[in-house]
Every structure is written in structure tokens, then in C-alpha cells.
Structure of IF140/IFT172/WDR19 TPR domain-containing protein:
Amino acid sequence: EDAERLLRNCKRYDLLNEFYQNQGQWQKALETAEMYDRIHLRTTFYSYARHLEEQGDTTAAIPNYEKSETHKFEVPRMLADDPEQLEEYVSRTTDKTLHRWWAQYMESTGDMETAIQFYETAQDFFSLVRVYCYCSN
């Protein structure tokens, strides 16, 4: 309580944000980052997403990884053990990089139809030609 008041009076919002995170007061940490500590906003979202993932709440972690702009790497890593949920996530997103990555993964497993579908949505025409040539289409 005193530390919180001192940090607020000194306008050390970066330390106040860290203090809230260490106390597990994530909503206060996010509010502080959004209002006063914008430079650490993405880092705060990332830390919160990691916390949620550690708690087993992957559904809530995903939007926070997206807000931290680390979802292209972190969500596939987090969902690697659940391919159905990962495919559902990739299908819902409009991110061409993730679509291309999933297409490459599907191609490596031999699922050429799904690979073609995701290469098309990623607009990766070079890979589409390569897969069509491989499939003799």
C-alpha cells in the first residue's frame, strides 16, 4: 500500500506496473500500462499471456499474445500439442504469415489438399505452383 502510493506520487509508473505484476494484480498492471506506461504495454500483455498460459487458460492467453504482437510465434508454440485447436486458430485469423506456415506444415505431413487451401488464402502462388507440380496437377 505504501509502496504503491510512493510509486504513484513519484510518477514511476514503470515500477508501479512491475509492482502490480509481481502482486498478481494484472488488471491494475494493464490499466497502468495503458494510461501511463505505454512503452511497456506490449510487454505487460505478453507477461499476462504467459501467466494465463501457466495457469492453463490458453483461450484467454491467445488475445493477450495478439495484443503483445507475439502471436505468430507464441500461439503455435502454445497449441503445438493440440493440432485441431491450432488449425482452428489459424483458420480464424487473417494473418497470411500464419496461413503460409500452416500450409507448409500440412505439406510436410502430406496433406496436400489442406496445404493448397492455406497457400491460396496466404496468396503464396510460388508454393501453390510447386505443390501442383508435385501432385501432377
In short: The two ends are 69 Å apart (CA to CA). The chain has two domains: 1-77, 79-137. The longest helix spans residues 41-54. The chain has ten helices and no strands.
